[in-house]
Amino acid sequence: MARLKKTILCVGDNWDELVARRMLLETVGYRVLPATDADEGLRFFRGNPIDAVVLDYQVPGMKIEVVTAKMKGAKPHVPIVLLSSFWPLPKNKLISIDKFLTKSQESAMLLPAIEELLTVRTKPIFVQWLDTWRSRNRTVLP
Q1: Quick count: other Cβ atoms within 10 Å of Cβ 92?
Q2: Fewest CB within a 10 Å sphere: which of 42, 52, 122, 125?
Q3: Is residue 96 situated within a structural domain?
Q4: What CA–CA distance (Å, rounded) separates 61 from 58?
Q5: Which residues of 21-50 are buried (b: 16+ CB within 10 A; e: fewer)?
Q6: Residue 88, preceding bond cis, omega within 30 degrees?
Q7: Per residue in 89-125, pLDDT tens?
Q8: How many helices (H) and strands (E) does the chain have?
Q9: In a domain, 36, yes or no
Q10: How many domains is the chain partitioned into structurally?
Q11: Does residue 1 fall inside a structural domain?
Q12: Domain of 88?
């Protein structure tokens, strides 16, 4: 039987923030797996069909660039959204990230960011290329 809901893995050290994210995402139909540290997040990531990851910058257990590299190494097609109160972040922290949001943007931008990443990822590569080409040429073509 096919899965009906997309599954989002949320990894962070603040339980209240995880619960709030879970409630937000579940109200629009996502299935959410919350994890409170890097090891638990990686276990869930490897052991479940995950469609996207929402990852807090200060996740306990290992450096963020190590966590994201392990996730992309295992499932490169799964988009990762990084949330942080800090900005700007060093470029080495953002290498495996598909979208970065500051925590002040989270409430307004998290759902649109996830929906955009999931929509782009589900389109065939040619359609992605064509959409990009069209958007670049809109300003040139009448």
Answers
A1: 9
A2: 125
A3: yes
A4: 9
A5: bbebbeeeebbbbbbbbbebbbebbeeeeb
A6: yes
A7: 667 667 788 888 888 777 788 899 999 888 876 555 5
A8: 5, 5
A9: yes
A10: 1
A11: no
A12: 7-137
The CATH number assigned to the domain holding 123 equals 3.40.50.2300
Please state which of the ranges 1-10, 44-53, 104-113, 127-136 shows the lowest mean pLDDT: 127-136
Spatial distance between the Cα atoms of 102 and 118, rounded to a whole number of angstroms? 20
CA-to-CA separations, 1 to 24, 26, 54, 123, in angstroms, rounded: 26, 21, 26, 22
Residue 53 falls within a domain, yes or no?
A: yes
Length of the chain: 142
39: left (phi over 0), alpha (psi -120 to 50) or beta: alpha
Instruction: Note the pLDDT of residue 119.
Output: 85
Among all chains, which residue has been given the structure tokens 């276990």? 43
